[in-house]
Amino acid sequence: MATRKAGAVEAAMPPELQHTEANCRAHEMLTRVGDKWSVHVIHVLSAEGTLRFGELQRRIPSISQRMLTVTLRGLERDGLVHRTMYPEVPPRVEYGVTPLGATLRDIVRSLIDWSSAHLVEVDAARARYEQQERGWGAANGKPPGPPPGSD
I want to staple 37 with a disulfide (CB 3.0 to 4.6 A). Which of 5, 19, 71, 147 is the partner? Predict the structure, then answer.
């Protein structure tokens, strides 16, 4: 693999892989939408419409209150989710997907469809990997010893 010495290597890289401000910013967005909860929140809000915080948390039972708050703030900051606060007692706050966030709906749906379509293959790959990891030293008939290079 080439290193970044004198700029020549970077010039030989395709533009989308070169270190530029735009590429770094794109990486920020990929980090946002690729985190553990953002895609799930966008999916639920896209499918269900505007929801109150508690309703959203009930639809994603494995997310903590704190993590949902952090995720919603990040999505709101990036313009993917909007927050509407109603001056009532107690205050009512609702969250919904913005038009920009809605552009991710098809992408999120594609990720979910891909995941569903390939679960059997992923499960088989995991089983092969786990079997290989458990039996790494037993192939020659000897019981597994310490990993190579651990002495």
Answer: 71
* Residue 97, C-beta contacts closer than 8 angstroms, at least 6 positions apart: 42, 45, 46, 80, 81, 82, 105
| CATH architecture designation of domain 25-134 | Orthogonal Bundle (1.10)
Q: How far is CA 10 from the centre of its chain?
A: 28
> Structure tokens of 81?
């989710």
- Buried b vs exposed e over 102-135: b needs ≥16 C-beta within 10 Å? eebeeebeeeeeeeeeeeeeeeeeeeeeeeeeee
The domain locations on the chain are: 25-134
pTM for this entry: 0.65
- Separation between Cα atoms, residue 81 and residue 102, nearest integer Å: 9
The answer to whether 68 and 37 are in contact (CB under 8 A) is yes
Query: For each successive 10 residues of the chain (151 residues), what is the average pLDDT?
Result: 49 66 72 84 93 95 95 95 92 94 87 91 93 68 54 53
